[in-house]
Amino acid sequence: MKARLESGHVMLGQDGLTLYDQSGFGRPLKEGVRLSPVEALYLVYRGRIEVPGFDFDSLLVHFSGDIHVLRSFLVYRDIRERGYVVQTGPQDFRIFRRGEKPGKGESLYMLRVLSERDLIDFAVVRKEVQATINMRKRHVLAVVDDEFELTYYEVKIQKPAPIEDTQNPEPVCGILSSRSVIIPAAPESVYDQAFYGKRFDDDRIVLSTIESVSLMEQGFVTVNHEGRNITAQEYREMIREFDTEMEPKLKVYQNLRSLNYIPKTGYKFGHHFRVYLGRKVHSEMLVQAIEPNTTLPMNIISRSVRMAHSVKKKMLFGCIHAEGIAYVEFARIKL
What we know:
- It comes from Methanospirillum lacunae.
- Pfam families: tRNA_int_endo, tRNA_int_endo_N.
- The protein is of the alpha+beta class and 335 residues long.
- The protein has ten helices and 22 strands.
- 29% of the residues lie in helices and 32% in strands.
């Protein structure tokens, strides 16, 4: 089937309608069918159309003014050869359910193509995922690494539901050792029941700095230091000096606690928190606090997802914004 180049696209005559009707290639117009660059490249690659004066290699060079064309072609080819019909837009691609196509079915995924080095702007991701949700689709990232291997991630905005209330701790007085708050005389304490702190010994509980700040601000803990009770703000400023991530961590911690989830340090897993849903033995999520206007390279996110999956947990990023905190989950999937 013969085609012609026209204004950055490839045009087929009326005979191109067969490709559209059978397999969803291109967009039908009055004068024929218009193919996007990746559709044209794929059809030339498979020998289904001819563009006079071009083979696949020269056509690829022709379209290389778009620096993403090779990456997009690799993703397009992979999805097509998995048995899906795929069209461009409204993000990079929309993918139809297997066996369905334009006019005779609906799309299942909205897909964005990235490289492993692309920066992920969490504000942009939240906006795109929400747009996908509003269209009742699933949001997918196709990441092309430096050796042109593909990995697919589904991205969701999770809305954690509150769970059964845990018992609030009783007001207690703690002592300050360096920056750590220790609660003495705490055998069988309600702090154990509410999952605050860690047992130092049979008589004492030591709180993490984030737990201490939060409990002091709620009035559950007072801390005596050098003969006087220090304020929550004084302690907060003391901690901020050596923990530059304290403020975003505290916001996410307090939000999770308001849902009656139990966040504990996620240091062993390389993240801010491991999170328990109630009194379960194992944590179910890893959560990283993300400040407004934060960007992370996709390869960093990939490491986070790999770690979470290896220990059978969900990987969530707690994105702080003007309206509150949005929990964005990244998970590897197989299309």
